[in-house]
Amino acid sequence: MDQVTLDNWNKSQDPRTFRVSEVSAIISRLLESEELQNIWVTGEITNFKRHSSGHLYFSLSEQKSGKESVISCSIWKSKALYLDFTPEDGMEVRAYGSISHFEPGGRYTFQISQMRPSGAGEKALLIEQWRREMAAKGWFNTERKRPLPRYPAKIGVVTSPTGAVIHDIKKVISGRFPSEILLSPALVQGPSAHEDIASAIRRVQDMVDVIIVGRGGGSNEDLFPFNHPVVVETIVNCPVPVVSAIGHEVDITLADLASDFSASTPSHAAEQCVPDRRSEAENLVHLRRRMYLCLINYMETSQEELNEIRDRLSPSRLQREIGIKRQYLADLSDRLVHAGQGCRSRVSFLLIELKGRIEGKNPRYLLLRELPERRSYMTEIHNRLTHGIFTRLEKEQSDLRALTAVLSLHGPESLFRRGFCQVMSEGSLVRKVTDIHPGRIVQIRFLDGTADAEIKQVNHDKKV
């Protein structure tokens, strides 16, 4: 069937009736034109389904002027494996692919080869990529986090100079502990905020004991500068501890993970940086009381030790101690004498025992005691060997005679006695007449000798 083009259709003078296949072919050419191939489409995912085969089926929709536009989409399993996020209904995405038309069903589909979240989703993926890279570098390890100074003389604050953060921090610190606050102003929102925050940290880091990096609540877009690698690397390389107080308590940025301490609010960060003046005063009173009690106990213990030393150095006590030591020396001397006598007795007994054992091992006594027994044993062994040899000789001679009789009965000589002879030709045994021919010289062996013969004629058996 000839294909029908739009130009021919427009030029036709009379209305024409088309077949369904022709209309479907025209639609396919229109939908699969270059204009609808390899394009990016933005929309919201609806009716998402994951087939058991691994293919993804869903629609991309858009609301505009009170009307909803929908495109059917599909992603084959081979492409779905490379998605770096999990598609869900309601997610705003950017998809790359081509429009294809399924002629048998009359449906067109957007075949997607690439897809990624759009807007905030792209930044979420970027933040996740940064997080993996920073974690691989060890920027979030707890081992590298430093303790906060207990009594900081100067505290640096990196935040907006017009926001409520600096006022909250000043209010908390002034009521808790008289530390000096150095404000390093910075932009906390906007495309260049990350560079301004990093510069503010570096500007104040050599002048303070601890730094608070903070801002009030906001959307994920507002907090994005605090996830930037420039800010996180500056916090990691800061020579003094850094306290982060960014967003609300549920907001967690990469700067929070890299800082030495993450506070839920700016006021909480200020409380962690300085101690409470009233609590410190109470602790001082308590320590003073403990020191006083320890000093009294030490004096009482020292007085008791001094009295004991005086008592020990008195003449009567000294004489008593000398008597006790003399008695101890006398007992020790008696114990040494008894121990020496016991040791000498044990040594004498051991010497007698060793002497008997040495005499028992004397070669002369051993020979005199064991020589007759050894002679008797050797005589028995000689007799047993002689008897065994004669017995074995008789058995071998008997076997030899039997084998000789069998050999003489079945050997070649018996065949020669019965009239058989052996024919040899050129050193080889002749078994068949086909091995010789007339004129051949053969050697014939008989019982009592050999004879040379010449073959005159060869007669084959009739069956051959």
Short description:
With 464 residues, this protein is of the alpha/beta class.
Topology:
Layout: H1 6-11, H2 20-31, E1 39-50, E2 56-64, E3 67-75, H3 77-80, E4 92-102, E5 107-117, H4 120-137, E6 154-159, H5 164-176, E7 180-185, H6 193-204, E8 210-215, H7 220-223, H8 229-236, E9 242-246, H9 254-258, E10 261-262, H10 266-273, H11 277-312, H12 315-360, H13 363-410, H14 412-417, E11 422-425, E12 428-429, E13 441-445, E14 450-454
Parallel strand pairs: 3-5, 6-7, 6-8, 8-9, 9-10
Antiparallel strand pairs: 1-2, 1-4, 2-3, 4-5, 11-12, 11-13, 13-14
How would you portray this structure in words?
With 464 residues, the chain is of the alpha/beta class. Among the domains are: 32-118, OB fold (Dihydrolipoamide Acetyltransferase, E2P) (Beta Barrel); 124-275, Succinyl-CoA synthetase domains (Rossmann fold), CATH 3.40.50; 347-376; 416-454, no CATH class. Helices cover 49% and strands 20% of the residues. It has helices spanning 6-11, 20-31, 77-80, 120-137, 164-176, 193-204, 220-223, 229-236, 254-258, 266-273, 277-312, 315-360, 363-410, 412-417, and strands at 39-50, 56-64, 67-75, 92-102, 107-117, 154-159, 180-185, 210-215, 242-246, 261-262, 422-425, 428-429, 441-445, 450-454. A 5-stranded mixed beta barrel has the order 1-2-3-5-4. Strand 9 (242-246), helix 9 and strand 10 (261-262) form a beta-alpha-beta unit. Helix 5 packs parallel to helix 10 and helix 6 runs parallel beside helix 8 (229-236). It is flat and about 140 Å long. The two termini are 85 Å apart.
Separate helix tally:
14
CATH superfamily of one domain: Succinyl-CoA synthetase domains
What's the β-strand tally? 14
Question: Could you say which overall geometry the principal axes of the C-alpha atoms support?
Answer: flat
Lateral strand order in the biggest sheet: 1-2-3-5-4
- Please report the first level of CATH classification, the CATH class of one domain: Alpha Beta
What class do helices, strands and sheet pairing give? Answer: alpha/beta
Taking the alpha carbons of the first and last residues, their distance comes to 85 Å
Main sheet, how many strands, which sense, barrel?
5 strands, mixed, barrel
- How much is the average pLDDT? 84
Write the CATH fold name of one domain.
Rossmann fold
Strand coverage percent:
15-25%
